[in-house]
Amino acid sequence: MSRGRLSTRGVRIAILVVALFLAGVVSFYAASSPDGLTKVSLDKGFADTEKEHGASDGPFAGYGSSFIDDERLSGGVAGVVGVLVVLGLTGGLTYVVRRRRSESESASESASA
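^ thats the sequence. predicted structure below, dont judge the formating
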């Protein structure tokens, strides 16, 4: 590797660290005002029609962790778990798509040989 160039692995690790830091620490300082849909429902007068969703009693519902009492830690844990789940799902999907593509390329090369 030449001097001054970043490795792909280093960039991936840096992105993971930044994402985990943002989700676990910085997210606590996000605005506490209602999100866009909630604000519109309040402004337009139909907020009272809101219903609970199916996962409202889940362990990470409401941007927190139901099993942790400390609000700051609860939100941080929920954020970190969310980042890890999204990265795991996208990594798995990428693996499946790449594997499928390489298998189809190998099959087409074998058929043409």
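Residues 71-112 form the longest helix (42 residues).
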